[in-house]
Amino acid sequence: MNHPKAGAMRRKPDNDNTYLFLTDINSILVSGEDTNGEFCVVHCSVRENDGPPLHVHGSEDESFYVLDGEIEMTLGDDTFSVRSGEYVFAPRGIPHTFKVRSEQARFLVTAYPAGFDSFVKELGVPYEEGMEANMEPPTPELLQKLIEVSKKYNITYPGL
Fold first, then answer.
1. Which domain does 38 fall in, by range?
2. pLDDT tens digits for 102-133?
3. What pTM does this model have?
4. Is residue 10 domain-resident?
5. Does residue 139 sit within a domain?
6. Any coiled-coil ranges, and where (predicted)?
7. Domain presence at residue 77
């Protein structure tokens, strides 16, 4: 396969690439546009006891690299702790979720191929310093929007 080369780049989390995504603060460090759709990298900052509902990605594999903090990861039938410096690979088609067990956790999610970055942009809102996430349980309207947008990206929720 002959792909045009993506340009070299350097990027950090800032207001141009950061979104309030449900209750997380997610910064798109590498987008699908940067890699011809091959992969994306999202920096996630998540508070204690937060995490997504159990879900399945039908179109992409994901990897998680914890920069700091601790998350409890469920991947298929296994639940285990993932701490700073540890890596987890979550293949497409396997139900997974996580809960942050430290006060906060920061980690990188890499998705192959890209698509998770577009999901974050579509469901999130541009982040501005000082914005706070609503920590109340999601409203039925927000859950419906999550399910509808997820369908576009081939993400399903076995428990919803």
1. 18-156
2. 999 999 999 999 999 999 999 999 998 877 76
3. 0.90
4. no
5. yes
6. none
7. yes
